[in-house]
Amino acid sequence: MNTDRMTQSFMELVGVASVSRHEGVFHDVLKKKLIDLGLELNEDSSRTQTGLGGNNLVFTLKGNCEGTPLFFSAHTDTVQPGEGIVPILDQGIITSQGHTILGADDKAGIAIIIELIQTIQEEHLPHPTLEFVFTPGEEIGLVGASALDMSTIHAHYGIVLDSDGPVGGITCASPTLITLETEITGKSAHAGLEPEKGISAIKVLAEIISQIKMGRLDEITTVNVGVIKGGSATNVVAEKATMKAEVRSIDHQVCLNEIASITQIIDAVTTQYGAHHHTTTQQLSTGYRFTQTMPFIGVIDQAIKANRCMSRYVISGGGSDANVFNAHGKQCVNIAIGYEKIHTVDEMIPVSQMETCVGVCLDIIDRMRGFKDES
Prior knowledge:
33% of the residues lie in helices and 26% in strands.
């Protein structure tokens, strides 16, 4: 591999803005790079459905030997402030100038993939068929991956390069995430002249919130009320009040049960006060859990150790595109690629971590040559 080339590639990539919903220019750059490397492109038309700045991109590098096909994935969008990024390399660590994010989440994953392909081609390494999946809109709810026709990915096994911390992290579990939004409708009245004729939506909502169990319910489940709004003036009994909440759990059924419990509380309290509610829920991700004894996890673990790293089995409180792939029948693992302090202006990544990750990915590919596909 060529570390200097990978570093330069990464710094060029982060210099092209691709904030969520504005990924188009970056996609053009990425498509040219990989087509110039001789990969076949299958681009869908999902942007007409999602409203994102680009489509899902699936590139294929045909195998030159027997083995189980494998896909790698990284997302192309970033959070704000993600425009005008100027990367700085100092003593082996890349940061931004301090006014923007760096965009290592997830352009480090993309740079790793590009270097992986170039190394395979230059060193004529044997490999099964490899697919490289690039999705927009990950940061705003896994939007691109959720719109992808999974039949366009022929490999059953996959690696998402989108987890923080030193190389060696294996996300073995990730939660189902369901959001809930409710609007309470009471009855307005003058707060000073005839408050008894009103039904305060704020009071109703306060009672609802007081009955919701919040915080960490157990080691795999969290509940949070994150937004409350209501009222129009101090002299008016509030007619409207809204609440936005979320439930996360590694156990999908537990997540459903907690959402049902909150909905029951809303029903009961609004009925008690003579108010009404309109409540909606949206499932943003589906949870998964892998065991350390699963063969594909074993392949990743061995590759990490072969590159002189320690495997760490992580239970994540957040979702990634891996959730979407797994929900559609793939067996896909999100691994750490070395970035830290993501979504902040202090975001950084050591070049050595990217280099190590390329080595781990090359090793995984090599081990897939003799891997028995149990799909």
